[in-house]
Design goal:
It is a single chain. This protein is of the alpha/beta class. Among the domains are: 200 residues, no CATH class; 99 residues, Orthogonal Bundle (Sec63 N-terminal domain-like fold). 52% of the residues lie in helices and 10% in strands. The strands form two sheets. Strands 1, 2, 3, 4, 5, 6, 7 and 8 form an eight-stranded mixed beta sheet that branches. The longest helix is centred in the first third of the chain and has 40 residues.
Length: 464
């Protein structure tokens, strides 16, 4: 026992490292984690005092614990048994697959990353790219929803800027959780998105086990009061018009709702519209091809954003017109005659988005030029006024008393965007840009019966 044992120096150093890691994990790290956990709880308590809808305890659950809870959920367990039987594998293999799905879905929310970093970046980016307008009654709508209800924002999907715009505008009210597709599963973006509370979904997965794990996470989050945002269209609109809703995530929420439970679910329709959709020509080209293969690379998009932020920092006005957000009338699930009718509830929410759609200068000009053809500025103003008269006044996201200024600024922006040009004092749509004009006019076509049918034809998939 007292004999001297000689080992190489590298092996001795390695043994010391393993001993140090073991000591840290058993003695020091639990205390450090407890210390930071207490500080986090105090910070969240202070933050909740200024939020209309405080951060829910569900969101602060440790990611590891949530993954375990999801993996051992009775409904998931039954689906694991079915998976093992259908695929001829042991049940422990099915359990490992369920845990893999759970790790892929469950986020790791950080209040500091969301409010201390994410919202600040969103504010800088949103205000650098657009002039932001919101309806005055948005805050009133949120304030009227009972605090013991789960709020789910149901939004149309015009641009990837939606992920930036709406959380920033709702930052004083709540922390919002998004369902994000496979496009964001690249490092380090994936880590940031998890910190911001978003969860990843596979839009093309047909496996029953995956769908069950996803459904149970959504239902647990809803029961826990997690404020969520859902794009029922399932992807960006390729035509500018609101697309038919898909009922995947909505059906999970509705199927898991307990009418006799303590917590109601309140859906809030959110309508978003832009004077300029950054991806407009990419989306139009995808619609013409009849697929959703977008040609834009993430490196190009990031480079574009950095360039615009640099121009903005130098004092140049690089904004692409106005972006507007308006909330529609909330829909209480408990108040529905049949709270299990997924089709009818989805139809009502889509209608709520259409009713709340903001009306901006560029869609108005595109509508007028598409109807009347080339026009001088005076005639264009009269044509726009004719369209405005058919639109609900509360939907106007421009100042009617300064209409000349609004139209002049919008026409100049459209000229720089390559959509229109002025020749001999007459504004006209550039050759080859008719589809772009249709794209923007489609966003408000449902307010105009004579244009609505045309918008539906244009919105139909190519080749149908």
């Amino acid at each position: 026992m007292t004999q001297i044992v000689e080992v190489p120096l590298w092996l001795f150093i390695l043994i010391l490292l393993f001993a140090a890691v073991t000591a840290l994990s058993h003695l020091l790290l639990p205390s450090v984690r407890w210390f930071f956990r207490r500080r986090l709880e105090r910070a969240v308590a202070q933050l909740n005092k200024r939020l209309v809808r405080p951060i829910e305890p569900f969101r602060l659950t440790r990611r590891h614990d949530m993954i375990q809870r999801l993996s051992y959920d009775p409904e998931v367990t039954r689906e694991i048994v079915n998976y093992a039987h259908d695929n001829g594998v042991p049940e422990n293999v099915g359990f490992q697959k369920a845990q893999e799905y759970a790790r892929e879905i469950v986020p790791s929310f950080s209040a500091f990353a969301y409010f201390g970093f994410g919202i600040r970046v969103a504010k800088i980016l949103a205000r650098s790219v657009y002039r932001i307008r919101t309806a005055e009654r948005n805050n009133e709508i949120l304030a009227q929803i009972p605090h013991d209800s789960t709020v789910i924002f149901i939004m149309n999907h015009r641009s990837n800027m939606d992920y930036v715009l709406v959380p920033y505008l709702a930052a004083k009210s709540a922390a919002m959780s998004f369902a994000v597709g496979e496009w964001a599963r690249v490092w380090p973006l994936s880590r940031l998105i998890r910190w911001w509370g978003a969860y990843f979904i596979r839009r093309r997965s047909n496996g029953n086990l995956y769908r069950k794990v996803l459904a149970r996470y959504v239902q647990m989050a809803t029961a826990g009061g997690l404020t969520q945002a859902v794009f029922p269209e399932g992807g960006l609109s390729l035509t500018g018009a609101l697309q038919p809703a898909k009922m995947g995530l909505l059906s999970y929420v509705i199927e898991g709702f307990d009418p006799d439970g303590d917590r109601d679910v309140v859906f809030v329709p959110v309508a978003i519209n832009y004077d300029r959709v950054l991806e407009d020509r990419v989306l139009i080209a995808a619609h013409a091809r009849g697929n959703r293969r977008f040609g834009a690379r993430i490196s190009v998009i990031v480079g574009f954003i950095i360039r615009k932020l640099g121009e903005r920092a130098r004092g140049a006005d690089t904004r692409f017109g106005t972006a507007a957000v308006q909330f529609g009338a909330p829909l209480s699930l408990r108040a529905q005659r049949d709270p299990t009718d997924v089709v009818e509830i989805t139809r009502a929410l889509s209608a709520g988005i259409e009713v709340a759609m903001p009306v901006l200068a560029v869609p108005l000009i595109c509508t007028a030029l598409r109807r009347e053809g080339p026009m001088a500025p005076g005639a264009l103003r009269k044509a726009v006024e004719t369209v405005i008269a058919k639109v609900p006044h509360q939907n106007l996201a421009l100042n009617p008393d300064k209409l000349d200024t609004e139209l002049t600024r919008a026409c100049e922006h459209m000229r720089r965007h390559g959509m229109i040009h002025q020749q001999d004092g007459v504004w006209r749509i550039n050759t080859g840009q008719e589809d772009v004009a249709h794209f923007y006019a489609n966003s408000i076509a449902h307010f105009l019966p004579e244009d609505a049918a045309t918008a539906k034809v244009i919105s139909a998939p190519a080749g149908s």
